[in-house]
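Quick question, first post here. What does this chain look like in 3D?
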Amino acid sequence: MSEDEDKPDRQVESIRLDIGTEVTNDGEKLWITLREIGKGAFGTVYHVVNKKTRQEAALKVERITGGDNLLKIEKEIMLVMQGEEKAIHVYDDGIFNDFRFIVMTLCGPDLQKIAEMMNNTFSQETIIRLCIRTLFAIKILHEHEYIHRDLKPCNFAVDFNPNLHNVYLFDYGMARRFAKKDVGGQYWMRRPREQVQFRGTVRYCSLNMHKRKELGRVDDIWSWFFMMMEMRSPLPWSATAVPEKAEALKEEHLVSFLEKDPFLRSFVSIVAILNATDYADRPDYTKIFGILCTNFEK
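> Answer (accepted):
Ran it through. Tokens below.
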């Protein structure tokens, strides 16, 4: 597969491991499954503990097939962020029986589960705090030359330790590298393709995705913006999963949706920033953080 081609869509077969299963690659590190955390299109995740050190972690598994090794792709992305305190870290990986696995940072509940537990009622202060922490997690990924392309609440999680306030971004099955540095340290953007396949989630994807345009960093920020605004009020297009209908509603009703709520009205300026940002542009994270902090201080 060439660098200009995209990873094909595919569902990863769900793998069920019995509680108490001992997973190891080389016999040195042995991980015991405690419970299933969740499963999705890109694998099944378990809460595990290291038999020797008692370190708790998350173990993600996918069955070995002739298709793409998505765990390998995710591992490569996570490894480039190993030096980041607020990023998922890799502890172990390998092959066990007929599946691949990766062991990584154990997180607490994701934002979708938290929203369900809270009946989607968040204070303004909580929304702004989550805006800042989730945007910081996205910025870390972007600074390592990747875009996520499927940002949504279930792909962010709080720290497993309730005394810590980190928010982690995960699930890089649709991620794509948007730039590279050559041996001389020169930074090169990838040439945008004329048309791309639909990626992501209809509710949160950018208008560029609806129009099948190449996605850049700004499109991740659009998804983040929709996701965060939804914590305040249902999005005008949330009732439809039809891309064409959602696209029309995003174009017609976004600004009016924001302006009718005094709290959301203060975020209209972020829309202006994103509208002025093109594929190759670096989003103005500093200005966006500034808007968020100004609202936090009100």
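The domain at 108-296 is CATH 1.10.510.10 (Transferase(Phosphotransferase); domain 1).
The first strand starts at residue 22 and ends at 24.
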